[in-house]
Target: Aspartate aminotransferase family protein
Amino acid sequence: MSDDSSYLFYQSRNPRPFLDYGEGIYLFDEAGNRYIDGSSGAMVSNIGHSNPRVLAKIKAQMDKATFGYRLHFRTHPSEDLAAKTVAMTPDGLDRVFFVSGGSEAVESAVKLARQFALTQGQDARHKVISRFPSYHGCTFGALDLTGYDPLREPFAPMMEGMPKVAAPATYLDRDNLSEEARGIKYADLLRDKILAEGPETVLAFIMEPVGGASTGALVAPDSYYGRIREICDEFGVLLIYDEVMTGAGRTGKFLAAEHWGITPDIVAMSKGFGAGYAPLGAIVAGARLVEPVLDAGGFLHGFTYAGNPLACSAGLAVLEEMDDQGMIENAARMGEVLMVQLRALMDRYPFIGDVRGKGLLTAFEFVSDRETMEPLPPELDAHARLVELAYERGLIIYSRRTRGGMTGDHFLIAPPLIITEQQIDELMVILRDALDAFAQDAGLPVEA
Ligand code: PMP
Model:
């Protein structure tokens, strides 16, 4: 067994302990330390770790065949998972294409949109408008849609530079509008952008219905969602929902789109869809889009591992378990419990400026002043520091500081959908302890 971490490179030179095993909402390292997986990894492990029924179903598939290339065989896991996915998504989304991750899903959504436009004789449509800040993935196409400068800048000359509109960070807005009017104001930025770009050149608009890593669980006013759908319809622009993080039950509905009764033209999913049991993602779209593409010769796209029976058996087992155990309903209920407890943190910690989210995708954000919403000074390195203090105490949370964006240090709390009320209490005890330690280190005041 190698104990040399230098062969493998990720982002940092700072190795973590070796993972030993997982159980429910907990992970254990090889030294026997227990961690609450308060962010489900990177918002992945929606059904919790080491679910025995899911493992048994994957094992059963493993014993039969781990791979059969999709051009050589149909497979039951892929077709059954497609059927199950369609059954769980809103009407009008009835065609599925499998991939192995979120960036692949986003790339696939955009390529499907483009091929559909070609079947309509709309060859000029090629621009995909996205929001700033946003995160859509790290491959070149998905990165070009991503509104997060530190990840883009080194590669910027290698991309076209897709148009961006401001994400609806209404909690930072100091206008005198009602919530509803604010939602419309932000949505209309898309209309202005489409007109400025030339509507005949705009292919699609892509958005995370609830923001993920880049904005920290940003939820728009309700009015935003319907207005965006109307604007896309007005100009024949396809609406792509990036539900890579929000899909598969995370926000208390199977798709976040369901909260607002929106049917996007294409939905990208991953993360909770395979829930950490297999690298898996999907795009789901209406037959209205897909059939013309198939009639015109087929989708010019496909990854080697797409739809492999092993990953699909895992995805199918995950969705069945989610359904059988009522996990999405639990996410909605526990999301409310968690939100109340997170909001209560604002009484004790004046440097928490906002708490937000939907279901079990929640976040809080640090500020130096609640009036101006100025972030904490970057030298405090708060986003990294609090994560470390929580980690040392056995709680995993996920953080970002959006440099060049509009938000400061924010922290995502997104435990597996199976979490209980008692486990939320347990999580909050550690979180408060870590926040106290952070405040003390940083010399920030705490209310008694
Ligand atoms: N879209 C969103 C909204 C995401 O949160 C992510 C991952 N954080 C991606 C796309 C990219 O997914 P992956 O890392 O699996 O390629």
